[in-house]
Amino acid sequence: MILEIIIFFLFVFLFTKIHIKNLLVNESPSSSSRGHCAHWFVRRRTCLDCKTNVSRLKVVQSFNYTFSGLRLSNEAVSFTKRVTTLTSIHVRKKLHLVLDLDHTLIHSVLVSNLSAAEKYLVQEERPCLTRKPSRFGNMLIKTRPFVNEFLREANKLFDMYVYTKGDWIYAQDVVKVLDPNKTYFGDRVITRRESPHKKTLDLVLADERGIVIVDDTLDVWPHHKRNLLQVTRYFYFKNNGIKRESKPSYAERKQDESRSRGSLKNLLKFLKELHSGFFSCGAVQELDSKDVRALINGPFKPNGC
Ligand SMILES: [Zn+2]
């Protein structure tokens, strides 16, 4: 695992030096002088560069979700964010997309919280409905219509993160349903474990100027509203985790959100336009000063989302 981390950051370093040297001319990673190592990348209290025990050093940010025990200094975070975005933009023509889970991509409920008219679902066999045991009892996970197509297409234009207020075990269960082979998210799943209070792009290893957030809740993003696209909350079950709706749920009516005119279909259309708008400039150098936030001007709710 350590080797993978080193290879990753070595790649980042080499890429920077060779391909975008002119952009980072005054910056260099900590390894430039072993005698004065700045301990940029620390794992389990050991600097990955100089191997020194740095338990007493101020290493500010934990990136446990990428590699267990990995912590980065402020300088390493800034450096990695910048280089990751430059690599994504110049090499793969991709931006970054941060996706919420609950009520954005899925709706889940404990079986014990199903209404009487929804109990039939316990026997239902459908690809969009998954039963999972949880520490609170059996759970049903209902994926939002069009979610598979959405992820497949969005993955061509964006490097994607999941960012949820749910706990780590729950998030892993849900992500396994959406992305069983880790094709879309890899280990880029940020949960309450890393982010117990508000959501923040500080934990996303990419430059904010290249990140789009999709969430049904605005309040959880106090500092990054310009990056934010809001989608209509997806409620499939009566017990929606926020309040019990008075009108019959989709499940009770045996209906669902439209696949062809629903939120995710419209969101994908908007994201494609956004991506196209970002990369539409003629000169490659212009990309270095582009900011996706100028195109979103959020918080913004795209048409039909
Ligand atoms: Zn060091």
From TrEMBL:
Subcellular location: Nucleus
Start and end residues of each FCP1 homology domain: 90-274
Protein name (record): RNA polymerase II C-terminal domain phosphatase-like
Catalytic activity: O-phospho-L-threonyl-[protein] + H2O = L-threonyl-[protein] + phosphate; O-phospho-L-seryl-[protein] + H2O = L-seryl-[protein] + phosphate
GO molecular function, one term: RNA polymerase II CTD heptapeptide repeat phosphatase activity
Role according to the record: This promotes the activity of RNA polymerase II.
UniProt entry keywords in alphabetical sequence: Hydrolase, Nucleus
Presence of keyword Hydrolase: yes
CDD domains: HAD_FCP1-like (cd07521)
Organism expressing this protein natively: Microthlaspi erraticum
Uppermost EC category: hydrolase
